Automatic annotation (TrEMBL):
It comes from Rhizobium straminoryzae. Keywords: NAD. InterPro entries: NAD(P)-bd_dom_sf (IPR036291), ODC_Mu_crystall (IPR003462), ODC_N (IPR023401). SUPFAM superfamilies: NAD(P)-binding Rossmann-fold domains (SSF51735). The lineage of its organism: Bacteria, Pseudomonadati, Pseudomonadota, Alphaproteobacteria, Hyphomicrobiales. Belongs to the ornithine cyclodeaminase/mu-crystallin family. It comes from the Bacteria. Gene3D superfamilies: NAD(P)-binding Rossmann-like Domain, ornithine cyclodeaminase, domain 1. Coiled coil: none annotated. This is Ornithine cyclodeaminase.
Amino acid sequence: MPENLNLVPFVSVEAMMDLVLSIGTERFLRELAGYIEADFHRWESFDKTPRVASHSRDGVIELMPTSDGRLYGFKYVNGHPKNTKSGRQTVTAFGVLSDVDSGYPVLLSEMTILTALRTAATSAVAARHLARSNARCMALIGNGAQSEFQALAFKALLGVDRLRLHDIDPAASRRCRDNLSALGFSIEICGSAEQAVEGADIVTTVTADKQNATILTDNMIGAGMHINAVGGDCPGKTELHRDILLRSDIFVEFPPQTRIEGEIQQLDKDHPVTELWRVIAGSAPGRTRADQITLFDSVGFATEDFSALRYVRDKLSETGRFDTLDLLADPDEPRDLFGMLLRRQALTQQAAAPQ
């Protein structure tokens, strides 16, 4: 790790890919899930606030901050579903982890890939507490950039090895199948969402359109299913018919945020939900019956990004997969910032002078 105060470890996209591959994707997901679950256990020690969102016609840009009193973290993330039409990602992100005592950043990292990994790991952590213990078949509706990560996380943490894929774009399902074909799954591409959920123990919805949609209707959801609703993450964007919510026991990350952005924006403001951290900590029940319908109304919360940044930082000295950025001014005398500028000017003039 760098010792000079001006240098901050930086994990680029290339370095993140190398980090994941050097660890192994499924091991990375399992270990990351451990960090996420550990931070849910100490939920009450975190500063918590709904993310700060700037909405536009075609998308949203958000800041997601939190702190445990020792470290501070935030993520910058966007969501623009139309981006794929111009060859861009729907979601991009980067994040910072800082030391609270000094305010100095200790890590700057890409988080486009890392967000996909942490979202999938969080889904699987929730399902480990909420799905039936013998769940092995998952319907995956919406086969975009998040889909393979979800599949691998559920395989790594729950042993899911059968996938039923559906997307309104058949090419997306074929790509997802091809990407996962050598990774231990039995995969069927389905012509409709109704077909995909037949026989599934877990249903994951992860669509991108920024609108109220009905990906699942009430008649499609049978007793004992666990629903992992990932796609809804902003006001006016949902995936499930309201009747499904009324039949389900609903689990959320942070109610003040989920009531604005999640599936439960369709319900009364006082509709009962259970916070996931309480289930993980053992202070509230998760699944209590085999025929219970459980719903994880996932919108993503800042503590999960904090956990992901913590995990990556802990891996840096072990793997060396990072660069350093000259990000912070570090004058010889802390109060002489202008003098640092003058000395730089002198060095520049000296270098330009004829020899």
